[in-house]
Sequence to fold (649 residues):
Amino acid sequence: MSESLLKVRDLKMHFPVKEGIFLRASKFNKAVDGVSLDIAPGETLGLVGESGCGKSTLGRCITRLYQPTAGSIEFRDQDITHLGSNALKPQRQHIQMIFQDPMESLNSRHTVGDIIQEPLIVQNIGDRASRAKRVLELLNIVGLPARSVTRYPFEFSGGQRQRIGIARALALNPKLVICDEPVSALDVSIQSQILNLLIELQQEFNLSYLFIAHDLAVVKHISDRIAIMYLGKIVESGRSEEIYRNAQHPYTQSLIAAIPVPDPHRKVQRQIISGDVPSPIAPPSGCTFHPRCPSAMSRCSQDIPHLDSPMTDKSHLVSCHLMD
Amino acid sequence: MSEALLEVSHLVTEFDTDEGVVRAIDDVSFAALAGETLGIVGESGCGKSVTALSIMRLLPQPMGKITDGEVLFKGRDLTQLPLTEMQKIRGADISMVFQEPMTALNPVHTIGRQITEVLLLHRNYTAQEAIQEAVKILDRVGIPSPDIRMGEYPHQLSGGMRQRVVIAIALACNPSLLIADEPTTALDVTIQAQILELIKELQSDLGMSVILITHDLGVIAETCDHVVVMYAGKVVEKGSVYDLFDNPAHPYTRGLLASIPRLDTIPKAKLSVIDGMVPGLLDLPQGCRFENRCPHSQPSCTHASPLIEQVSTSHEVSCFRWQDL
Fold:
């Protein structure tokens, strides 16, 4: 593997749950509980999991929107885990974010031009004229007409708003873009337009993506590698082809089996895992997936499994006792 | 072929808005056969939910009204029924499941109260009988320890469990038709699989018809017998699920099918797209509504609206050029 752009090691984000009349934090919501991952320049890492598994929290920790409880985040060979806001600012220029709901992530009282040039103003880049020029350039890159500059977000459709969000994320020529469910609020025909755009931009600007989503077909399409998260931990990761052809963790297998296939001839009986994701405040003992796992053994409720590389493809990591 | 339980013909629904009258659905016709699942698929704003609300006569008042067409259910035209008659049908003979279970349930009433409400309203049950029946139904939709859940509130349940409760309420009176409007869109894939399986299972046990409204073609392929494709308020294609996936006739249906990433497409390959976006209902084009996005449009498409034509006995399409494609 090439040199990492982002190196996350044993990252934890525990939110205190305040209870009682003194609001003492007696319990913790372990949203992210010991995650390590690497992203190389120009690479897409897909992060998949059900709601509440901690994938968005992980994304926000990497951008330091949350201060992680423990672990380290290294970006462009600098440890940014504990940097103060002044020291962080030059690095933040290279980490940008695209959000799920383009209506909520764009200020409805600002024009599109203001929205896209805001990162440039924050980072103190260029003068008024050069910023205006950059905005037009960005609009062109994401496929919006130049006249959009003076318009407001409500005048645009969902797909176009997402393009505005992408233009804003690209304004500072970032190295890494965290895409948090960027297409899940969009219609199918618009979704493919945005996915194509993201892939084109990656090739043109050598961007790295952390692509967070729950739709495995979408994630597989865009990702080089995939990590599957369950209750704050990565349970399996590897090259995306390998994960789909050769999924080892029962959770990954059931996620893949649950995707509805757009082919009426394939009406197979599939294995459906029962139950819901347990609360991260009081996760099950041992392997946190064991209460829902179809192949759970007695040791699964006692021993915590660790990520290991049991396959011939050494980049394929699995955290499951079945592998022993 | 089984007979039609519900027949919607030439239905037109309009809304009075500040900008003028908007025709949300225009000349929509389809039939739901007894014991079958009919899928209605389309993008946001295509009129699929308005169709469901029109059948149920639950259109927002006073803006929305059915201005033409009829909805025949068991031989009666629902659009002409007096409100009191319609109330007897809703929740008893035709029920509905909504997308967001948290907004469909009343947060200040217990689960038990919300289920028994339907039973007390439509059946001559005593309070005691209604409670017993409600526990049975909760058990039937797969809710663990139903007698305890009866006393709980919606916020104490997970999303999947809430949707099961909504389904339990819908099924309490053994309806002959269930309309499910995006029942799994707000849920995770694993929970979606559970809920779809539950609906299928209940359908074959109870012999009811289901109208499933969704934007997900995967869900359609896995659960439906017949499919209606809607675009900008019109039906553009309808047929059996095999007709539609094996032999799509309308350029819009073809575009939709081609644009979804599948597990077997080549990673990072360019997905085919449908350019542009759905026209606003206030400024609809004169001719075919898909004309401005259609890769096969020709000048005649802008003049008149295409009529429904037969592709085969089970398959209909509304396009001037389907035979050339």
